[in-house]
Amino acid sequence: MLVSDIGGTNARFGLAEAGSHGVLVEGSVREFPVAGFASLSEAAASYLEMQGEHVDTAVFAVAGRILGDEVRITNHPWVISRQQTERALGVGHVALINDFAAQAMAITCLQRDDVVAIGPQPWRPFDAREPRTFAVIGPGTGLGVGGLLVRNGRCYPLETEGGHAGFAPVTIEDLRLLECLIGRFGRVSCERLVSGPGLVNLHDAVCEIHGLPQQALAPSAITARAAAGDATCQQAIDVFCAAFGSMAGDLVLMHGAWDGVFLAGGLVPKMLPALQASAFRERFESKGRFSSALAEVPSLAIVHPSSGLLGAAAHAAQLLQSPNG
Question: How much is the pLDDT for 322?
Fold first, then answer.
């Protein structure tokens, strides 16, 4: 079975045994830049040729809203049709799911070494026999948001576009940054701050507030300069982490995700030391009358390198186990 995690920048592919719950074939994971291919089917065909494999089933987790048979990637021009992809690949069955539905399903497969707690509450092993509600949020090219309901032994991933919800400022500094971003974008979504491009937006806004020239830095350059002692870059990262924590706490409140919020996406492992040293957890818990409740909720960074593929495989396994699958 082919599993894939398609973002606005990279497409990751792997193989999983049919029916295996989030178990990937060792050595099968490959990553390609989406800009290098005209379509998903072209990228998938290239991967399968490289692996010397033919598959009957494929599950594609895509960073966009699924509308019937089709999905348009939010931050890339690809438009993906399930039926066209089946024909192009000669595959019997193709499933399209939201990328953060896959990240949500990955929660069911994670082990202790796959997560790092941000804050005092530890990781708790997954148990499908217990009713649980989780949230998942993660910055990459965009800001993905999803959830997972566990009821009566079955998992129900929630597909959302919560990253496009409006940003809620908390401090006077937030208001100043928001004013700068409103001048640039009009409406300001959470994704405008907490994502790779969002880190760039924050750095630009910090420069504007301090009357400094904007430098058109890439996210990697901002983090590198912050590590080297650049105060402006460090402030951008501090705001990023604090806003991320605030959004994650809000997500718990909105979903009733009292069993934990998982932090996913390509930036999380890279920024793990910054998140641990930042105001992330303080802002996560700072929810007025619900602060004591949030203090009991785990916030867990996913550090498994292929969690989206794990989730896609877990999703496929659950479909195959369903009486109507």
Answer: 63
Of 10, 2, 133, 134, whose CA–CA distance to 63 is shortest? 10
State whether residue 30 is helix, strand or coil: strand
- State how far the Cα of 156 lies from the Cα of 315, in Å rounded to an integer: 9
- Do the domains at 2-98+312-321 and 111-303 have one common CATH topology? no
Residue 227 CA to residue 221 CA, distance in Å, equals: 10
Burial (CB < 10 A; 0-12, 13-18, 19+), residue 286, is middle
Question: CB atoms < 10 A from the CB of 96, how many?
Answer: 23
What are 75-123's pLDDT values in tens digits?
A: 788 889 999 999 999 998 999 999 999 999 999 999 999 999 999 999 9
Verdict on whether the full-model pTM lies above 0.85: yes
- Residue 104 to residue 90: CA distance in whole angstroms: 29
Give the whole-angstrom CA distance, residue 134 versus residue 122. 14
Q: Which CATH architecture has domain 2-98+312-321?
A: 2-Layer Sandwich (3.30)
Q: Measured between alpha carbons, how far is 149 from 163 in angstroms, rounded to an integer?
A: 19
Domains in the chain: boundaries: 2-98+312-321, 111-303
